[in-house]
Amino acid sequence: MATNKITKAVEETAEKAEQALSKDFSQGYQGLLEETGKKSEQVAKGAVEDEAQNTKGIVKAGERPSESLPAPRPAEGTDPARGAKPTVAGDTSPGAVHTPPDGPPWPARDDIPGAARGKTLNPPNKRHTVSGVKSGQVKGDNSLILRGYEQSVHEDIAGIAAGNAEWDPVSQRYSINGRSYGIEPHGTVFPVEGDGIVNLGRNQYAALQHLIKAGGDPAAVPAFSRSPQFLKDPESVETALDLYRRMFS
What we know:
By secondary structure, the protein is of the alpha+beta class. The chain has helices spanning 2-62, 150-162, 202-213, 223-226, 228-231, 234-248, and strands spanning 106-107, 120-121, 141-145, 166-168, 173-176, 179-183, 189-194, 197-201. Helices cover 44% and strands 13% of the residues. The chain has a four-stranded antiparallel sheet, covered by helices on one side. The radius of gyration is 46 Å and the shape is elongated.
């Protein structure tokens, strides 16, 4: 009888202890979950804030003026100044740009097309310049380089010598920078037409020559009122006078 009571008391005590342990474990586990959840929430919040800061930095970088960003490097094997592939002698690929030689005179390459090939190119005869009209030979067709274009013409000739001009086998002319040129057998270049080049007929060139000698005064040129050349072609005198005023005003 006493043994049964003792056994029952032990069982009740064990049951209560088990219940207490179970309750403590449940409360502890629940607390652990809550603490873990809070930490996870803090970590997630921190990650979101970091991502927002990174995004903000990227946006600010994208708003910087373009000049503050480093310029893209040119592709390897290109000329940054021209944006074209640098070439060497013998390179005749489309769009090839060759370095013009120093001059005058300008030694032309041996592998370029046309009349300039292998020649030593000389600048135009003085009769094609404003300063040379006064003593220039009057021909049926005359081309005159206006003041301010002399250097451009020299650069064009250097480009022809380098092989950078377009050759027309029909007209036997080179075209470059909006101007065209012919090549005489001995290598002297003459302007044909284009920007900064004026074409004059025989009477127009002769009238301009007279005006330059007379200092631009038509009344000081007896030929204008006596020579049939100008009496029959007064428009040539007017053209020459207008050109003179443009050149010397």
